[in-house]
Amino acid sequence: MSEFKELWPDGPIFSYSERGFALGMDSVLLSDFADRGNFSRAADLGCGTGFLLVSLLYNNPKLSAVGAEINKSAALSAEENIRANSFDDRCEIICSDLRNYKEIFAPGSFDLVLCNPPYFKKGCGYSASDEKTKIAREDLHLDLDEICFCASYICKNRGSFCMVMRTERLSETICTLSKHRLEPKRLRFIAKDEKTAPKLFLIEARLNAGVGLSVLPNLYLYDKNGDYSPEYRRIYHLEV
Q: Please, are residues 78 and 67 in contact by the beta-carbon 8 Å criterion?
């Protein structure tokens, strides 16, 4: 039986089931970046065990959502997490290959689409021995171009697509988003501290939006003393 724990004090509960994947920092930061409280319907492409959905549904009582996940055990864990928080009347988990997105989603039906995609291209040298980790790490089933095409297909006009990616793929990401009429609007780099170069970035693009990108201040995880930064503590609901 799954063991549920609060994600933060007095917050939603979540099960870190062995069937699914570990909750990563990148998902937590993406949730905070995307959650601006003015969306009515959201989709998570490759939802894993459902953290992004649980977090968004908890913070936005009027939001409805759909999560798609190819891994059966992760999808089952996502369903458990949704039910445990009584969000099952507002959220559906679909276990399917995202390459079948036209069968899963209606076109233009979401004003927010999220994705924490595999960071590495297939065969790039960052492979893993087990299939589950390999799928999470490499774009074996869906590459960046296909993800952006899917997002543009299911986004409403001027709808938002938010994702996280490694900095070495920034140029590729911006070009691919633009190719599919997803205009980059917000960009934020994530760095360990002020002395360390960013390794990740968060980006929001909007379908058929005008040109104009806002580069936000860097998000630092640690301060100059090596302690968690105030923003990290806010995002993780730690006492400041």
A: yes
How far is the CA of 116 from the CAs of 21, 58, 89, 144, in angstroms? 13, 19, 24, 11
pLDDT digits (tens, 9 = 90+) for 92-151: 999 999 999 999 999 999 999 999 999 877 656 555 455 454 444 545 568 999 999 999
Residues in the chain, how many?
A: 240
Query: Does residue 152 form part of some domain?
Result: yes
Q: Which helix (H) or strand (E) holds 236?
A: none
> What's this model's pTM, rounded to 2 decimal places?
0.90
Q: How many CA atoms lie within 13 A of 239 on its CB side?
A: 1
Phi, psi of 59 (to 5 degrees): -80, -15
Domain housing 192? 4-235
Q: Read off the CATH number of the domain in which 203 is found.
A: 3.40.50.150
DSSP string, 71-117: -HHHHHHHHHHHHHTT-TTTEEEEES-GGGHHHHS-TT-EEEEEE--
- On whether residue 240 sits in a domain, the answer given is no
Number of structural domains found in the chain: 1
